[in-house]
Amino acid sequence: MNSSPRTSAAPAQPLLDDRPEDGVFRVHRSAFLDPRVFEMEQTRIFEGGWVFVGLASQLSKPHDFVTTTIGRQPILLMADEHGHMGAFFNSCRHRGMLLQPAPHGNRRVHVCRYHSWAYDSAGLNQHISEREQGRYLPGFQAEDHGLVPLPRFARYRDFLFASINPDVPELEDYLGEASHFLDLMSAQAPQGLEFLPGKVTYTFRGNWKLQIENALDMYHFSHVHVSYVELLKKRPLLPEMGGPPPTGAAEGEQGSFSFGNGHAVMWRSRSRASETLLAQRRERFAPHMSDAQLKWSGYGRNLTIFPNMQMVDNVTSMMLRVIHPLAPDLTEMRTYCLAPLGESPEEREARLRDYEDFFNPSGFATPDDNVVYEHSQDGLGAIGAGWTQGYARGMDRSDLPARNPYQDELGLNEAAWTVGPRSLGDETCFHDAYRTWARLLAG
Ligand code: FES
Ligand code: FE
């Protein structure tokens, strides 16, 4: 089926129909199809705001480097000889060639492959080949020839963020109360978090916002991932890895928090982690945690830091994925197994086995999601069918308490929330991302 982008509807249509007073929240199909929308997303969201670019542990040694992209622009992160981290455009100052094509490594000097201009790990130009013979004018000689630093680069705990836009707010302000959940991830790793070797990159033929939705979508789980659930029922589990849910967990509750700026978390109070596994881990991180963090470390959570980072903490394993939109109907995903530094070999093995089960194109769940995205992209091409109805679950709040006890427990003051049984499949946790998206597209 042809899902090529349509260009006819977006400018004439509001992309978001957000009328809470009428109980209406709808996203227009053009949001997933129109190349003009995609262009605005690139310039105003990915290249216009903060995005996640890496983990501090990737630059733990002098001269470590990592390359990535912000929107469509290539980026080079480096630790200099003193271990100070910097972020630069990955583009030679001479004729603009990609300076470092490797995804990561350790280099004291980066030499451009075209005419051999060379830069050190602090981004300073160290060499212009045959400079004396070059008949350069004084104006050129006086110029700085070093790599161009990114306007903004900041760290929050183990997580590195950067922006091409100098006018973004401070990173802490951008993250807001979503930082409580980054704190929770980092608190489980007193020595820091690391990506395990073996990054996986894959693409799906669909719009990037399908991925944003899916990570917060509890509704799909028992429908799309039936084969995964059935497999788990049949397989004897390693006692270290999982088993019956820990005693004392609230039965089958789920909820979400939306933090503004598009960040949100969907949590569930049950996990497969066995008491054996939880006890092992608590021994390592309990002294560094509040009581609330200790309790919540046993809850499953899917966290989105808008627009490009998602973390799934199954308790038994942790996955971090980075979203790179390539076209309205093409998205590249880079996924990593995220783990605390200093785990025992047994804990690490249990984490890896569980990670392999669910995640990546080789797992038992990610391929199902990717097929769903591709068929969704095809189906959304039916612009004549009008608005979809997929953002309405959970909008009736009449039976919710005035205060959410979980919110108080975590010390969250400003987050929007919902809570309910596992069958709720809340869709209101998508709303903040789309409101943020619409606000940023409107400039
Ligand atoms: Fe890099 Fe010429 S483009 S040295
Ligand atoms: Fe899924």
| Shape assignment | globular
Rg, nearest Å: 23 Å
Oligomer: single chain
Terminal residue distance: 34 Å
Number of strands: 21
Helix content: 25-40%
CATH superfamily placement of the largest domain:
Naphthalene 1,2-dioxygenase Alpha Subunit, Chain A, domain 1
Name of the top-level CATH class of the largest domain:
Alpha Beta
User: With helices defined by DSSP (H or I, 4 residues minimum), what is the helix count?
Assistant: 13
Low-confidence stretches: 1-11, 244-250
Name the beta content range. 25-35%
CATH topology of the largest domain: Naphthalene 1,2-dioxygenase Alpha Subunit, Chain A, domain 1
Based on helices, strands and strand pairing, what is the structural class? alpha+beta
Write the layout of secondary structure elements.
Layout: E1 16-19, E2 24-27, H1 35-46, E3 51-55, E4 64-70, E5 73-79, E6 85-89, E7 104-106, E8 109-111, E9 118-120, E10 125-127, H2 138-142, E11 152-156, E12 159-163, H3 171-175, H4 179-187, E13 193-195, E14 200-204, H5 208-214, H6 221-224, H7 226-234, E15 253-260, E16 263-268, H8 275-285, H9 291-296, E17 300-305, E18 309-313, E19 318-327, E20 330-340, H10 345-358, H11 366-380, H12 405-410, E21 416-421, H13 431-441
Antiparallel strand pairs: 1-2, 3-12, 4-5, 4-7, 5-6, 8-9, 9-10, 11-12, 13-20, 14-20, 15-16, 15-21, 16-17, 17-18, 18-19, 19-20
Residues 214, 220, 224-225, 365, 369 line the site of fe (iii) ion.
Structure description:
With 443 residues, the chain is of the alpha+beta class. The protein has two domains: 51-156, 3-layer Sandwich (Rieske Iron-sulfur Protein); 176-441, Naphthalene 1,2-dioxygenase Alpha Subunit, Chain A, domain 1. Helix content is 26%, strand content 26%. The protein is built from 13 helices and 21 strands. The chain has helices spanning 35-46, 138-142, 171-175, 179-187, 208-214, 221-224, 226-234, 275-285, 291-296, 345-358, 366-380, 405-410, 431-441, and strands at residues 16-19, 24-27, 51-55, 64-70, 73-79, 85-89, 104-106, 109-111, 118-120, 125-127, 152-156, 159-163, 193-195, 200-204, 253-260, 263-268, 300-305, 309-313, 318-327, 330-340, 416-421. The strands form five sheets. Strands 13, 14, 15, 16, 17, 18, 19, 20 and 21 form a nine-stranded antiparallel sheet that branches. The protein has a four-stranded antiparallel sheet with strand order 6-5-4-7, with no helix packed on it. A three-stranded antiparallel sheet has the order 3-12-11, with no helix packed on it. Strand 8 (109-111) and strand 9 form a beta hairpin. The protein is globular, with a radius of gyration of 23 Å. The structure holds FE2/S2 (inorganic) cluster (FES) and fe (iii) ion. Fe (iii) ion binds next to loops.
